[in-house]
Amino acid sequence: MFSSGLMYYMITSSISIQVYTTKLTMKELIALMLLLRFPSGTTIPLSSFYSYGYAANDTLLPQTDDGSSPAITLPTPFLFYGINYSTIYVNNNGDLSFGLAWTGIGPTPFPITTYPVVAIYQADVDTRGTGSVWYRTTRNATLLAKAANDIHSLTGTSVSLQWLFIATWDHVGYYSYGTDKTNTFQAILATSNARSYALLQYADGLIQWPSSGAQVGFNAGNNLNYVNVPGSRTPYILNITSNSNVGVRGQWVFSINQAVPFCGVLYNYDEGTLARSGFVKCYDQPYSSTTTTYSLDACNETQIVFVGAKSSTSSTVFAIGAFGSPYVFTARYSTATAYYDIGDAYWYRYPFYSFGFTNSSSINLNTCDYGQYINDCGSRLCWHLDQNAGGYRAGCTVDLNSDTTWRKVIYKGNNGSAMCSNLNILPGAVTSSTSTAIAIGVAGAVVCGITICSFIIILIGYKLLTKKPRVTNDSPSNVTSGNRPGVYITQGNFELVNVATYRPADSPYVTISDTLY
Question: How open is the CA angle 216-217-221, to the nearest 5 degrees?
Answer without folding.
Answer: 130
